[in-house]
Amino acid sequence: MMVKKLAMLLIAFLFVGCASIPPEAPELSIELGKRISAIEDANIKLLHRFFDHKRKDVDTFLESEWVPTFTETFFSNQIVSSAWNSIVQGNNKEKRLDFLVTVGKKLQNKINSKRVELMEPLTILEQKIANSIRSEYSQARAINSSISSFLLSASEVEQNRNRYLDMLGMTDIKISKAIDTTDNIVSELLQKGKNVSQKVDKAEAFISQINSLKDSL
């Protein structure tokens, strides 16, 4: 990500000529700090847009697959089917309306519950990735604000440079991998299920995979 490149440029700038620091260095450091914060904000906004799109994909799955399948299964239940047939045969409009209102509330509650069940792990994952991004940029700002501490011997400077770059690189890889994996998991959810069992299993697999991903961060 961009933060690693910024940190690498900063460290390279500091260590190319560690024997002397130009008078412009403090101002450059301040400007770089502002730039790091601006890029951090931009990346966080992009992350939120990405997850907003994934949430829309989950809603698409609910509306096009899960809800129709659940509704069909619900009304195929022997008790529900018998009750509805009895009301229809009785030709009582008031009872028919009461039945539809009662059943409608139950269906909507179940749909809302399933939506929360699918969305919640996505939201938690989004927050964990956002925290990782903020942590990464905090490291870059810490490096930027610690210019004076790097006036060390050449060997100590090299050790510190490698240590910071290794830290940034590990975080960068984890964040990129998490975003790619999230995209793949949601794509699998959107693939059409062949039968009722597959459609139900897809929702459960989605929740399990997203939870596993956020636990790995």
Architecture overview:
- It is a single chain.
- The protein is mainly α and 217 residues long.
- Helices cover 87% and strands 0% of the residues.
- It contains 6 helices and no strands.
- The longest helix has 52 residues, at 93-144.
- The chain is elongated.
- The two termini are 17 Å apart.
SSE layout and pairing:
Layout: H1 2-16, H2 25-75, H3 78-90, H4 93-144, H5 154-190, H6 196-216
Helix pairs in contact: 1-2, 1-4, 1-5, 2-4, 2-5, 2-6, 4-5, 4-6, 5-6
Features:
single chain; 217 residues; mainly alpha
Give a quick summary of the entry.
87% of the residues lie in helices and 0% in strands.
Main sheet, how many strands, which sense, barrel? Answer: none
Number of domains: 1
End-to-end C-alpha gap: 17 Å
Structural class by secondary-structure content: mainly alpha
Helicity level: over 70%
Please compute the radius of gyration using only Cα atoms. Answer: 27 Å
> What's the rounded overall pLDDT mean?
76
Number of DSSP helical runs:
6
What is the number of strand segments? 0
